[in-house]
Amino acid sequence: MAATTTSTTPTLSQALTRKRANPLPALLLALGLIAAVSFAVLGYLESQKTETVVIFARAVPYGQQITAEDVGTVTVALHRPSQLAGLTDPAAVVGQYAARNVGQDDLVQPTMLMTAPPTQPVYANGAQLSVNMVPVPFSVAALGPVTDHDRVNIGFSDATGDASLCDAAKTAAASAEPTALSPATADTPTLRPYACRFLSSVRVLWLDGGIAYLEMTPYQAQALWAMQAAGVQLWGERYGIASDPLPAFERLDFGQVNPEELLAPAPTPLPRTDPLVPPSIPGANAPILGGARP
Fold first, then answer.
1. Of residues 121, 124, 64, the one with CA closest to residue 95
2. Is the whole-model pTM more than 0.85?
3. SS3 of residue 56 by DSSP
4. How does DSSP classify residue 228?
5. Could you report the per-residue pLDDT of 180-214, keeping only the tens digit for each?
6. How far apart are CA 247 and CA 283, in angstroms?
7. In this structure, are residues 135 and 259 in contact, taking their beta carbons and an 8 Å threshold?
8. Where are the domains of the chain?
């Protein structure tokens, strides 16, 4: 039996018949190009959209009420970072109070505004006087270079050597008795002059030329005025805000200087719960310093 052979050679009519092409890929490519161009055009048009926002036309210090002359408007891109969102209605800004110092051309943000004025006096640097505290002027010449972010220690020197001024609020500790010079007579000893640190870690509120305004309690301020009235020589020293408060009424004359303490390193700082709390004065119920001496 003979095998049947199937021929794969196309016939003449099949070879002359052109294969029809599939139009789908070309259509998809055209649609993609059209969509890309459309999105590009829409994106460009959207990027050109703008809106008007409120800016400060001039600097406004903290706590000052904002007037119509303080604000202006500027046109910015509609799509911008959230940090530059700003406010669009000037009427919503006028009449409110600056929550901090703001500069000219600053974009008005809600956090820059408050509805009521500060309840305490405010300085041009934005520092606010704490409740029940008073500002006391103190010469910068006695402090040296200082900023309104500093703390200072205040002390005085008594050329008479009368230890009652420094020891009025506490009993002199052992080994801290005032040192006497060689007495002229047994009945009239001459006391050695000394220095006394009066307050520690006092906040600097504001600097005005050669005057630093220090924040104190009314009693502290009155005690300082009493010392000045008594002609006591005052001195001050710059001190770090994170440093430990030093003991009040810490008296020392050079006859008491201890070499070990003189060469000892500064102690490790102690944790503080609230560095803004003003230091207290021991013996706050005692007579004002600088008054009549015993």
1. 64
2. no
3. strand
4. H
5. 565 555 666 677 788 889 899 999 998 988 899 99
6. 13
7. no
8. 50-114, 134-263
